[in-house]
Amino acid sequence: MKLFQPYSSNALQLKNRIVMAPMTRARNPDGIPNEMNARYYQQRAAAGLIVTEGTAISDTAKGVLHIPGLYTSQQVEGWKLVTRAVHEQGSVIFTQLWHVGRVSHTSIQPNGAAPVGASDIPAATSYAWGYDESGKESFVNCSIPRALTTPEVRQVVHDFANAARNAIAAGFDGVELHGANGYLIEQFLNPFVNNRTDEYGGTIENRARFLLEAIDACIAEIGAAKTAVRLTPYGGMHEMPHYEELEATYAYLAKELQKRNIAFIHLMDQKSRGSFALPEDFLTRFRNNYNGVIILAGGLDKPRSEQLINEGLIDLAGFGEPFIANPDLVARLQNDWPLTPPDRNLHYGGAEYGYTSYSVYQ
Ligand code: PHB
């Protein structure tokens, strides 16, 4: 099966086509990666490629407590433990650069300020993980955001590039910009959230400008072969209503990203997260505009991954949640061994238990 064979593109040399997808695990109260995180990723490094959990690019980028960052020298030093541990296993590791935008709460923003977004339109029924009124850790309704000014948008572009430079200093093989799941970049793409009147709002080109400037800034820092992006066309997470120009927006992005020759585009089907499914025929249309490396994640299994690879619609298959309780997921898929179900209460926060404690198949 192609899934288990080595894969090579201009940017990537992988021992197989299985990708560990990014997953928030919130085990870094101080934001600094440590030996426990290194052990977790090393246990899962049979994957050809690992994309880490979303990593904050600045102190306004966070919408969840206890996530790691990539904007201080201590964080860079901490990530070196992780990249070294993964490279020892012959795997390749990208980090996911994350700015949540409006999907955040005043209790976890610097000085208790409003989260920043593409506009002041809130994600009114979505949740961040911060502190409630009594100071207790809790899911809290997202706060009303403040629209970034035009110069501030350029500063966030700069923050992405700065985090990309830090990622390379920390030993990562590249970065994946988080352009998915209703976070800041997608807030700019969506015309129901982006009501801006500057050059970052209005037309498809303007709504895509923030993403493409962030990509170009990362390319200028670390090169196109180390730059990638995650997108969720037709997703709905965190209040992303579908819009008339949705298909045209992603066709435009595919063509623009094609020109830039980046490492990969990582698509996610949000059906696995209780939101809208990626339409069946979308991958065919997307492939017509983009012949670079495509990863798909979200609810895949072995037969469907192999089929999509054989049809040329995707190149690499991403698995998220199955990797949590199955550190040896690659071997289990290869041998058709049963999968251990995860304990969802242990996904976020805590320590080793439910993180590095899951064992290989006996
Ligand atoms: C989550 O914490 O559930 C989460 C984080 C980042 C995503 C999606 C979901 O992109």
UniProtKB/TrEMBL annotation:
<keyword id="KW-0560">Oxidoreductase</keyword>
<dbReference type="GO" id="GO:0016628">
    <property type="term" value="F:oxidoreductase activity, acting on the CH-CH group of donors, NAD or NADP as acceptor"/>
</dbReference>
<dbReference type="InterPro" id="IPR045247">
    <property type="entry name" value="Oye-like"/>
</dbReference>
<dbReference type="InterPro" id="IPR001155">
    <property type="entry name" value="OxRdtase_FMN_N"/>
</dbReference>
<comment type="similarity">
    <text>Belongs to the NADH:flavin oxidoreductase/NADH oxidase family.</text>
</comment>
<protein>
    <submittedName>
        <fullName>Alkene reductase</fullName>
    </submittedName>
</protein>
<dbReference type="Pfam" id="PF00724">
    <property type="entry name" value="Oxidored_FMN"/>
</dbReference>
<feature type="domain" description="NADH:flavin oxidoreductase/NADH oxidase N-terminal">
    <location>
        <begin position="2"/>
        <end position="337"/>
    </location>
</feature>
<dbReference type="GO" id="GO:0005829">
    <property type="term" value="C:cytosol"/>
</dbReference>
<dbReference type="InterPro" id="IPR013785">
    <property type="entry name" value="Aldolase_TIM"/>
</dbReference>
<dbReference type="GO" id="GO:0010181">
    <property type="term" value="F:FMN binding"/>
</dbReference>
